Every structure is written in C-alpha cells, then in structure tokens.
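Chapter review: from sequence to fold.
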Amino acid sequence: MSVKLKNVIETISREKNIPEDVIEKALKDGILTAVKKEFKLREKDAVRVVFDKEKDELKVLIKKKVTPFVEDEIKEIALEEAKKYDINADYGKYVYAPLNLEDIGRIALSVAKEVIAKKVSKVERDILYKEFKDYEGKIITGTVRRFEGDDIIVDLGRIEAILPKEEQIPKEKYKIGDRIRALVLKVSKKNTHPIIEKGKLKRVLKVFEPPIVILSRTHPNFLKKLLEIEVPEIAEGEIEVKAVAREPGERAKVAVYSKDENIDPVGVVVGLKGSRILNVSSELSGEKIDVIEWDEDPAKFIIRALAPAKAKKYRLLPRKKRIEIAVPKDELSLAIGKNGINAKLAHKLTGWHIDILSEEDFERIQKLPST
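The token string follows.
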C-alpha cells in the first residue's frame, strides 16, 4: 500500500496543535493494528509500517515465509517474488513484502480510523492537561456556554470547564454568553477528585473527557489572586497576603503584612478612597472586604480581626489555641456580626477559637477558679 500522507499529517497537526511526528506515529500505529487484526497476524513483528518522508508515502510490509508452495498469500511468498525485496532471500527464510491497497478491507480501514482517532485524541488531551495544569491556582476568563442543572459549563477556548454550584457565589446569576472570571481550582486526568464527588457533578462529568477543569469563585485564593492583579505591591512582593477568610458574596477578611516599616500595607491595599478594594469587591458581587494588618502576636492579630468591634481586655489560652475577649456591651453584636459572620471570619482568618464576652461576663469568668 502506498498512500500520500504529508498534507494529511500537516493538516491534522495544525488543526489539533499536535507535533507532526506524533500524528505520524498515530497513523502508523492505527494501520498496523488494523492490518494485524484483519489478517489475524499475532506475531509482534508480523507487520511493519514505514513512512518514507522523501517519497511522501506510507508503506505496509508484511513478514512472509519463503516457500516452494504458496498456500497462504498473506503469510507465504514464492522465492522469485521474495528476491524482489531481498536479494538474499531463500527457502525457509522470511522477507517483508508490501501489501496491496486492494487487500485491505473496509472493516480494517474503519478499525484503522478508530485507532488513529483514539490515539490522536489521547495525545491532544495530554497536551491540554499539561497546558491547563499550569493554570491551576490562577485566574482565567471564559464564556458561559451552557448549564447542567445548577452547574455552569464555561468555554475556555480549547476546552470546556465546570463551575460547580458549590463554587459559585450564591447571589450571582449568569446567562449564556456572559464573560466570567474564576480561579482554576483543579485540573484532573480522572473523575475522582473530592469536588467531583459532590452533588450532581459526577453525573455531569459523564459527558466530559479528561482533562477535567474545575473552576471556583468562592475559594479564598480567588480573592487573593484578584488582589495580586489589583495591587502591584502584592504582585511584586512588597506586601504579603498572610491569610484570607470568606463568606462568598457577603463578607471577607484579608490579613496583609509588609516588612518595610515605611509601607502601610492596609492603606496600600485599600487604595486611595478605597478604590482598589472596591474594584475587587465589585468583581465579587459587592462582597464587603475588611483589610487587616497581620501581626505575629496572636492577641494583637485576633483583636484586629474582630474589627470594627474594639476589644478592651483578653485572656490568651495558647495550649488550647483559644482566646477570651471582652468588648463593651453595646459592641457585642458588632463583634459577633449578623448571623455570627464577623466572629466566624475572625476564627477562619486567625485559626484561633474566639470567645467573645461582654466586659461584665469576662470579669466574672476571670474570678472563677481555673480548671
């Protein structure tokens, strides 16, 4: 069989963004598999597929035994014919002879196409995986393509990603065609990540081929990456984001720090008249963001984290990683926050258990015998 393939290889390579040598190998492997299956050739070296780049042709060669009486034209060859392909051919020896195009049936060609398609698809998916794996933990922009239940399918150009319901800001609504920015939370070759097991996502992924790209707009790192984009001092390392805590779409707290005493990390991050933090808040559908200066002293850090409430006294219990904080009675609800959100975010941000007490209750507890 002799087939012109150069243009075919170049076209597929260009369309799929896959190296030409990879396409060439997939074609050769597909034809080899099909020929071996068609003629029931089980030996590993029974078939050779050779691509002559100078002549721009692909040849299929079958291993045949030289015999005086040819009973099987696929596996045997006469000496006179064998010498055309190997001058040293002799009875009992083997030569590789070309297979005619007419000898390959439609079923075999169909098998070849299927094998080639699978191999090209696998290589294409591997390339996509490596490409998007580099985006993991970064922000990417796409277009809302469709909805699968409560999950949003986002078109990223060369691949579709999933924004699961659990990773969406609750009050946000989208329609097909909307632009959307999100954090690339996970790029997986398999459908086994814990996020995938949640809700209906596993069912949705049945129609997806790996790699699976999962997005998030609720993860703390989405807010952190938005700040890096908005605040050059963070991206350049002059200011460090130490911790982020979020109740997506409602409120967030960000702890920032600078080694440079001449830099006010809170003021720089908030921006002139709050311009920088408002831009980030706008991307998060109005999520209110408290920017707090981090301190290595846990008590100072925790007290700042409870802002806008002002602590008067505290007792630190380091072994239990717990702190008792006294606030004025009229600021108790402010310290706790609506539905406990302020206290909850302060706990998430600092990693400490925080007991918020009125000054009266704090004094009373301090007088109790220690246990």
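Two observations follow directly from the output. The CA atoms of residues 1 and 100 lie 5 Å apart. The first helix runs from residue 6 to 16.
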